[in-house]
Amino acid sequence: MEAMEVSDILQEVTFGQSADESGVFAALCRFQSRFESEASPGGRARVLQHTAELLTNASLSWLFPEGESSSLRRQYLKLLTSFVSHAALPESDTDSDAPPARSYEGIPGRCLEVCAVFLALSAQIEKALVNPPGSSASLGTLVRTLAPTLCLFCITHLQKQPWSDAASRSRASELQAAVQRMSGSGSPHEMLSGSPEEERTGLFGPVLDLLLPDLTKSRWKRKPSVKLVFSWMLLQVARPRLAEHLEKVFPASLLISDDYWLENKVLGVKCLHHIVLNVPAADLRQFNRASVLHHMLFSSLHSFDGTLAQVIDLQVPCGWSVRVFYLVVNAPQVVLPCLIDLLSVIENPASVPRTSKHFDQVFRHILTYMEMEHKLDLRRVYAENLVVLVERMGVWIIRHLKRLERVIVGYLEVSDAPEEKARLSILDALEKTLRIAWPRVERRLEALARSLLRFLVDVSSSTSPLREQLMEKASCCLMLLECSSRGKLQQLAFLRTSPPPSSSQTVLLEVDSSCVPGPVFRCIQSVLCIPGAVGSSPSLTVPS
């Protein structure tokens, strides 16, 4: 656009002298036409600059005339949509390769140019909301018309990705704050979810409608920003609002998780886990959604393995950030928490009798992999999830006590210092097992007690800062064994360590400081002070 032609447009309108919408409508049409006719980025940048000047200097009554028509609102939206294309991300030619980083070189600068226009318009709308020049209802309709496009644009450029830099992220953050204020929200969550108290709907639905055409099987991988914008918005919306959009977000999350790229699988499972936690169980069971998800998650435990060593960070400025996942992620670490939470949805607690077949299936799977797993990272993940699964299964773990005993004994023997996460988690799992299934633990008393005592002796000579915590948890398990066995732990026979093992045996009640290290002896003393009667211990759960 030539400078003279721009000045002609500015001279054709008389700011503040007319409340007729024909002037602003004509000006918006002229700017859009000039912008779309420009082929060079420099020419488009000049049109954006003059548009921002027009929006900044025009009076509120001219920009937002009283009783504004739907045609004027549509023209505002067309202008914004046209400007968004100036900073649009390039699409990949194939589904297998992401666009090269050099293809994003000009995007941050174009984002700044577009943000200047959007911020100028947002500032005028905010002023008009405080002192409406016309009908406040028509102005609110304009905000609801423009906010989804503005929101989608700012979320795309807020993320720390190859298509953004510090300056563009900062301006996008300012635009997000402006959209938040225009919508009357105090947080991103409220902006997307709305306010039930004020009966105000959020922007999640309208923005999702703009995003879904690109979330198809043939298009979503060609636009790398689509999955990140979708996951960021989804993680901001919680119950009860998320259930309203289940028919849209569930298929999209399944699509992302069903990809052969590990990072996409992880991101998709994160989205599905959020859905499981924030959608009512009845809605998930409807149309067999929960069963489909269970089949996909359980198959994922076998179908993909390895670690993800790439950061996909959705952190943005101004303190409102969401990190979708951490630097290194493996398959069980992501899939198991989602699968365990899903089991409570599939197996309706109200069903009688409760069979727990899905719980049993997952529990057997975890025990099988725990027995043969040698990688410390995966051992920690399995042990951590075993604690949750034992608690969720309740008394039904009695079906697996034999294998569970082997796993617990094996994990107590292998240190994963310095963190000791695996052994801390396995002690928590043993404690919950003893509290829940104590009537069936007596026959396993000897194996568990010997393993715990060997563990105490091993840890007592350690220099780990977690030594006291480990010994405290082991002592608690021994106390529970003493209670559940009605005092039989005291009479359990053990070989002396000094003199040599060929000497006679001694029962635990007769152990003194010459047999074991001092810390272990003090632990044994604290255990044997517990009364032997089961009824005197409030920490044991009576099975129902």
Automatic annotation (TrEMBL):
GO cellular component terms, A-Z: cytosol; nucleus; TTT Hsp90 cochaperone complex
Transmembrane segments: none
Taxonomy, superkingdom: Eukaryota
Similarity remark: Belongs to the TTI2 family.
PANTHER family: TELO2-INTERACTING PROTEIN 2
Name assigned to this protein: TELO2-interacting protein 2
